[in-house]
Specification:
By secondary structure, this protein is an alpha+beta fold. Helix content is about 40%, strand content about 25%.
Length: about 160
């Protein structure tokens, strides 16, 4: 979790720089409209607004994940029997690729890599609201997991819960 927050913090720094650059572009003298059809300043302001919203969402995700990490540390003393928010799970088809799914309350879809000793693990964050997150919740070890996305159904089984 610490590594995920660190990577999100790096992404936050990039987003802040992009938001600042877009804001500067919106107020720059070169952006002043020369004709009624010149929309550069308007476009830059929309970009600045979007980048600022992205910054806010990343900050919120970091705050929630940090708080979630503290609560998770207290609850991890017990053996994981079923998938819940905070579970790190792996499906059989992903075992060879060292790909895991981390069920978290925010930042769904974010992907990162963690290196421990000589192994590199790929982790995708899933929220319970996502189709895959919903399919995994409340499943137990060796349960079949069926997921239908865009009319395509895949079935696999849960081979690890941590």
């Amino acid at each position: 979790m610490v590594e995920i927050c660190a990577q999100l913090t790096q992404e936050l720094q990039l987003a802040v720089a992009a938001a600042n650059q877009a804001h500067q572009g919106a107020i720059d003298d070169q952006s002043v409209a020369e004709t009624q059809y010149d929309t550069l300043a308007i476009e830059q302001s929309y970009l600045a607004q979007g980048q600022s919203q992205r910054v806010a969402k990343i900050r919120q995700a970091i705050d929630i994940l940090t708080s979630f990490q503290q609560r998770l540390a207290l609850a991890q003393a017990e053996q994981e029997l079923t998938v819940k928010v905070g579970s790190l799970v792996q499906l059989a088809q992903d075992k060879a690729k060292q790909h895991w799914y981390f069920i978290v309350p925010v930042a769904g879809g974010y992907r990162c890599q963690l290196t421990q000793q000589s192994s590199c693990y790929k982790i995708t964050l899933l929220t319970p609201q996502s189709p895959m997150g919903a399919a995994l919740l409340a499943q137990s070890l060796d349960d079949d997991v069926t997921l239908t996305v865009v009319g395509k159904t895949t079935t696999d089984y849960l081979c690890a819960i941590e």
